[in-house]
Amino acid sequence: MTIAHASRTDWTDGPAPSTSGEWIARAGEVAAVLAVDAAERDRAAKTPYAEIGLLKDSGLVTLLGPAGHGGAGQDWPTAYRVVREVAAADGSIGQLLGYHYLWNWAARLVGTREQWERIEADAARHRWFFGGAVNPRDRDIVVRDEGDTLVFDGRKTFSTGSKVSDVTVLEGVLEGTDKHVFAVVPSGSEGLTFHDDWDNIGQRLTESGSVTVSGVRAPWSDALGYVDKEFRPRVYGTLNVPTIQLVFVSFYLGIARGALETGLAYTREHTRPWLHGGHERAVDEPYVIDLYGDLTAKLWAAEALADEVAREGLWFHLNPDEVTPRLRGEHEVRVAAVKAHATDVALEVTSRVFEATGARSTASRYGLDRFWRNVRTHTLHDPVAYKRREVGVYRLRDEIPEPTWYS
């Protein structure tokens, strides 16, 4: 079944999933649909309206939403696994789903209780898909205070989700200050223009191009975490970086698994034994067996570490008022470790799988190269060396990283 034939009735005829395992299985069903024409869609690089429709129809977009408003009420470890499942079939859609979960959760991380309860309820009820124009490294959006209204002006280099989103998380700096402001606005807002300039070698369907923000207005009441125009910080709010990095880990490992499974299937069906090896089947070649054993062991180990760190992180989301700088810092170190390891493993798996599949597997019709292109593109998001540095400094000097936009 292709995306074009995946209708709402495929998932609405029976009861909705109710457990973590059932939702992960639902993600597997979505992945099976995406996998059918993933290589073709990667080459076409068209705006993934149908793919986002699939995520909505399956219910995956409301995974973290409150059950009382139509959401699934699931937790972050489940969300990470769901992202991993989807990314195994299509890395771009896995990233979009992971970012959606992050932007949906941004109100809870940064906002007041009234704000996040309202946003999460509306998002679950209407099955909103979230995009984000957030790139805090550059102060490229200025926010003006006009009484009861905030006005956003500027440009963001990246805006993942852009045209396929229902709402967008905007971020800018309040004029004349160093205060960052986040607000959720309709993606169809006047003055919000998404550009078709995402032309990278990987993650081609993520709609991560630039956006121009010209006079986009939002009420002060929508400025997340602000009360009477003053921001009220919480240590829990600094969990945005560990959470987003675990999302990255999830789709890196998902993409790696997709490459490995695709390679295994190709080797079983198409790879020829080396003419001087003395074997009649490629699956009997010692070097092929060793390679798949090596890559599988490394991937399984990385997945196990990711799952363990995700479970550790759940405590912070369940106990937001008990988060301390020290606990947060130690968790960030663990996240940095799994991010560094997942990056290395994903790059190795997606590259070395060709050693087992052989020269003919490089034909474009198989699309085996997309896995490496996807991982290589996104793992450049922030230098992995600095993740290893966080771990090394903690181990050597017992120093935790200071919360920044990247640590």
UniProtKB/TrEMBL annotation:
SUPFAM superfamilies (alphabetical): Acyl-CoA dehydrogenase C-terminal domain-like, Acyl-CoA dehydrogenase NM domain-like
Keyword flag Ribosomal protein: no
Family annotation (InterPro entries): Acyl-CoA_DH_C (IPR013107), Acyl-CoA_Oxase/DH_mid-dom_sf (IPR046373), AcylCo_DH-like_C (IPR036250), AcylCoA_DH/ox_N (IPR013786), AcylCoA_DH/ox_N_sf (IPR037069), AcylCoA_DH/oxidase_NM_dom_sf (IPR009100)
Region described as Disordered: 1-20
Domain Acyl-CoA dehydrogenase/oxidase N-terminal intervals: 32-119
A Pfam family this chain is assigned to: Acyl-CoA_dh_N
Keyword Oxidoreductase set for record: yes
Stretches assigned to the Acyl-CoA dehydrogenase C-terminal domain: 246-381
Segments crossing the lipid bilayer: none
UniProt keywords, alphabetically: Oxidoreductase
Name listed for the protein in its UniProt record: Acyl-CoA dehydrogenase family protein
Organism classification: Bacteria, Bacillati, Actinomycetota, Actinomycetes, Streptosporangiales
